[in-house]
Amino acid sequence: MDYDRFSTVEKETAPPNLKELKNVAVSYHYTSSIPLAVWLRTSSRILKHAEVYLSQGVTDQAYILYTRFIDLFAYHLYKHPDLTDLKRQKDSDLYKHYLSMKAQLPKLMSDVEKLNDVLKKRHDDYIKSVKAKGKLIQREREERLKEEATEFKRSMLLNEGNKDIQDKNAPASDLNDALLAKKLRSLSRIRLNNGQNRSRIQKTTYPILSLPHNNIDHSVPQLNDNIRQTSKENKMTPKQITHRAVNFTEKGIPLRTLFVPSNLVDEFLKIASRNTKRKLETCGLLCGKLNRNAFFVTTLVIPEQESTQNTCNTKNEEKLFEVIDNLDLFMLGWIHTHPTQSCFLSSVDLHSQNSYQIMLNEAIAIVCSPDKKFHKHIGVFRLTDPPGVDVISHCTKTGFHPHNEKNLYKECQRLGINNSKTGHVVMMENLSFETKDLRK
């Protein structure tokens, strides 16, 4: 896929320092009410995502995810209540999975230390370059002012010299007239002191440096060559073009843009049509790639599932995740139908969405209400953060149940090019995708 046509050049900004990155890394919602199996699956995705970031040279995001993985195992998962029972079943696949992931900690900690050095050097180098540019600008300014002052002084000396010559050669009557004219000019300057004598001011402010003189150095300072060289080096090649994050969570964490093929929903509704006629829900997973700081949905996966009028649960999840891992895809969210209901997130949907969003802040839920009696047929949602993610993460209820808290989720589809702040999800035409139906 040609991602360049969706790209924008990201303005150079200061790289975050280590303290900022560490704060982001540990700013996630952990609760032991979420089963250990879910946390282990989330941890696997965190490592997978970190590896992708590292392969693309996005070292700050890789650092955040590696640090988060370490934090999870070092401070939380070893105390998870599910682990007590698993230790009694030492041969269980889940316990083996836990041990194998925990065994990676020493190497990951070593890798994080190396990334720590890389990121610190990058930040320090940026600060040094900013200071160097500041000094360079100041030096150029001083050189420019010096040249202007020298030229002004030269022009004044030339004028005075010409006047002296004229005065010496002039008759007595002419001298008197010259003195009178000089006084009149002096009076005129006093009257026009408040900016009326614009031509005089402009000459002083912008001296003409058209003729070379022996006492003026007209060579370009050597440092200017460095500026031109730096400018050439800073010109971004196509591989360096990135998408600038313009959306943020409620607590200020950046949300990268997520591009969804505009015809994906129609394709999904065709697949779901048989269930829809029987008033049964259908669900699918939105999977894709990270490219230059933006996500692209490239694959619609239809898992094995059990459906009712109001719910849809995936089956054989091991096979599902194996397929996603083999394709090296990010889980970017999910899509499901409401055959008999309007377009919203139910309490069950909120918990499902939370399981995606704790893995990836940008993860979304697309809800389709195909029945013509509903005014709104498509909704693109995410949990608010806060309060949504925190409330749902700490909710231990199952099934349909009320949540008294308000504003737990919001729409996040971008409403046009000129309304980028309305959401991080862009429905884009001419984006190709493939469908993998695991029910067959």
TrEMBL record:
<dbReference type="InterPro" id="IPR015063">
    <property type="entry name" value="USP8_dimer"/>
</dbReference>
<keyword id="KW-0479">Metal-binding</keyword>
<dbReference type="GO" id="GO:0070536">
    <property type="term" value="P:protein K63-linked deubiquitination"/>
</dbReference>
<keyword id="KW-0789">Thiol protease inhibitor</keyword>
<dbReference type="GO" id="GO:0140492">
    <property type="term" value="F:metal-dependent deubiquitinase activity"/>
</dbReference>
<keyword id="KW-0482">Metalloprotease</keyword>
<comment type="similarity">
    <text>Belongs to the RFU1 family.</text>
</comment>
<protein>
    <recommendedName>
        <fullName>Regulator of free ubiquitin chains 1</fullName>
    </recommendedName>
</protein>
<feature type="domain" description="MPN">
    <location>
        <begin position="258"/>
        <end position="389"/>
    </location>
</feature>
<dbReference type="GO" id="GO:0046872">
    <property type="term" value="F:metal ion binding"/>
</dbReference>
<dbReference type="GO" id="GO:0004869">
    <property type="term" value="F:cysteine-type endopeptidase inhibitor activity"/>
</dbReference>
<dbReference type="GO" id="GO:0005768">
    <property type="term" value="C:endosome"/>
</dbReference>
<keyword id="KW-0833">Ubl conjugation pathway</keyword>
<dbReference type="GO" id="GO:0006508">
    <property type="term" value="P:proteolysis"/>
</dbReference>
<keyword id="KW-0645">Protease</keyword>
<dbReference type="InterPro" id="IPR000555">
    <property type="entry name" value="JAMM/MPN+_dom"/>
</dbReference>
<dbReference type="GO" id="GO:0016020">
    <property type="term" value="C:membrane"/>
</dbReference>
<dbReference type="InterPro" id="IPR037518">
    <property type="entry name" value="MPN"/>
</dbReference>
<dbReference type="Pfam" id="PF08969">
    <property type="entry name" value="USP8_dimer"/>
</dbReference>
<comment type="function">
    <text>Inhibitor of the DOA4 deubiquitinase involved in the regulation of protein degradation by the proteasome and maintenance of a normal level of free ubiquitin.</text>
</comment>
<keyword id="KW-0378">Hydrolase</keyword>
<dbReference type="Pfam" id="PF01398">
    <property type="entry name" value="JAB"/>
</dbReference>
<dbReference type="GO" id="GO:0061578">
    <property type="term" value="F:K63-linked deubiquitinase activity"/>
</dbReference>
<comment type="similarity">
    <text>Belongs to the peptidase M67C family.</text>
</comment>
<dbReference type="InterPro" id="IPR044098">
    <property type="entry name" value="STAMBP/STALP-like_MPN"/>
</dbReference>
<keyword id="KW-0646">Protease inhibitor</keyword>
<keyword id="KW-0862">Zinc</keyword>
